[in-house]
Amino acid sequence: MKFFVDTADTAEIKSLAESGLLDGVTTNPSLIAKSGRKILEVIAEICAIVEGPVSAEVAATDYETMMREAAVLRKIAHNVCIKLPLTPDGLRACKALTNEGVQTNVTLCFSAAQALIAAKAGATFISPFVGRLDDIGQDGMELISEIVDIYGNYPALTTQVLVASVRNPIHVITAAKLGADVATLPPSVLRMLYHHPLTDKGLAAFLKDWQGTGQSIL
Ligand code: E4P
User: Fold this and answer.
1) Contacts (Cβ under 8 Å, ≥6 apart) of 89
2) How far apart (Å, rounded) are the C-alpha atoms in residues 147 and 9?
């Protein structure tokens, strides 16, 4: 499973990229706003840190303007992935960009029908938002299960399931069990994946015993 980080905070991205475990980055207009920086500048900086796909979202809602915005965004770096909303215009832009060989991430997916039509439009990634479905009393992971099953029925479909709106490690593990291709995680959730109290306790005991030996490996 690939791990993307869902942030426009370049200091966080740099620090997480040092792990060597980061496969890409997703941003959205809210995350760009939170960064307080210009989109072109921040996406360029992220693309210089991470080799994998960096999703940059269009702000327009009509096809023509989306395509003009995509033309600006894709010039930033070879690894920019154009993020488009799951609307008729967004999917039309997705199809056109896919035909031009541009990577696309179709966002704000909340149903299996939407995921199916995004795959037909040739999306590189489909982003179902699990946390936001959970928030309204629906089962976000049930949607991931449905999409993975449906895509599995059509091996010719190349769209990757990118689990978004992830809120905790259980979302990540459940998505991995279901065979989702990618999860995009807030930095805090990505860091949580490392931790277990027994690891901390075990390490403290090993270090204490090691000190008692008076030895040094170096
Ligand atoms: C994904 O690409 C989105 O940017 C993100 O996962 C949305 O998450 P949220 O529901 O926590 O805002």
Assistant:
1) 61, 62, 63, 66
2) 30
What percentage of the chain has pLDDT greater than the value 90? 100
Asked if 95 is an active-site residue, the reply is no
pTM for this entry? 0.96
Ligand 1 geometric centre to CA of 141 (Å): 15
Q: Whose CA is nearest to atom 6 of ligand 1?
A: 165
List C-alpha distances in Å: 89 to 13, 72, 83, 106, 117. Answer: 31, 18, 13, 11, 12
Sequence-distant (6+) residues with CB within 8 A of 122 are 94, 95, 98, 99, 104, 158, 159
What is the position in ligand 1's atom list of the atom closest to the CA of 167? 11
Residues in the chain: 218
The verdict on the CB of residue 129 being under 6 Å from ligand 1 is: yes
Q: Residue ranges per domain, the chain?
A: 2-213
| CATH level 3 topology of 2-213 | TIM Barrel (3.20.20)
